[in-house]
TrEMBL record:
GO terms for molecular function: acyltransferase activity, transferring groups other than amino-acyl groups. InterPro entries: Acyl_CoA_acyltransferase (IPR016181), GNAT_dom (IPR000182), Trichothecene_AcTrans (IPR052523). This is N-acetyltransferase domain-containing protein. Pfam families: Acetyltransf_10 (PF13673). The lineage of its organism: Eukaryota, Fungi, Dikarya, Ascomycota, Pezizomycotina.
Length: 93
């Protein structure tokens, strides 16, 4: 995923990932990404967990996995209409 540098840090990456997560949640799918350092926080906010590091000539990439059963597993509750992304993040359904 990439957002034009002049529009970054305005929530566009989160909005795109929210749509993607909505689809994978509805279909009970697992998701895997190889993230650049810039993307790790974004993916973490939506429940992806770092599971490894891949070293390339372009730098290190973090392997991140989001399993379909992660929602609600941490015991926290989001306000109505929001889905759990991780222990401190909820997002609009
Ligand atoms: C990663 C990227 C897609 C994020 O898009 P964005 O529209 O800026 O993301 P958002 O504004 O929704 O921010 C989402 C989170 O990512 C964090 N973030 C955004 N850009 C970041 C950067 N360059 N470095 C570290 N964290 C970053 C934000 O702080 C935010 O976290 P928070 O809400 O907990 O504070 C964008 O920086 C990008 O296109 N980078 C270049 C390509 C790239 O490295 N893509 C990574 C996927 S492999």
């Amino acid at each position: 995923m990439a957002v034009d540098p002049s529009y970054q840090r305005n929530g566009i990456g989160s909005a795109l990932l929210k749509m993607f997560c909505h689809y994978i949640d509805e279909n009970a799918l697992d998701a895997f990404v190889m993230s650049s350092p810039a993307g790790v926080r974004l993916y973490s906010n939506f429940g992806f967990k770092a599971v490894g590091v891949v070293e390339t000539k372009h730098g290190n990439f973090t392997s991140m996995l989001r399993t379909s059963g992660f929602m609600g597993n941490n015991g926290n509750v989001c306000e109505e209409g929001k889905l759990m992304a991780n222990s401190h993040h909820c997002y609009e359904e």
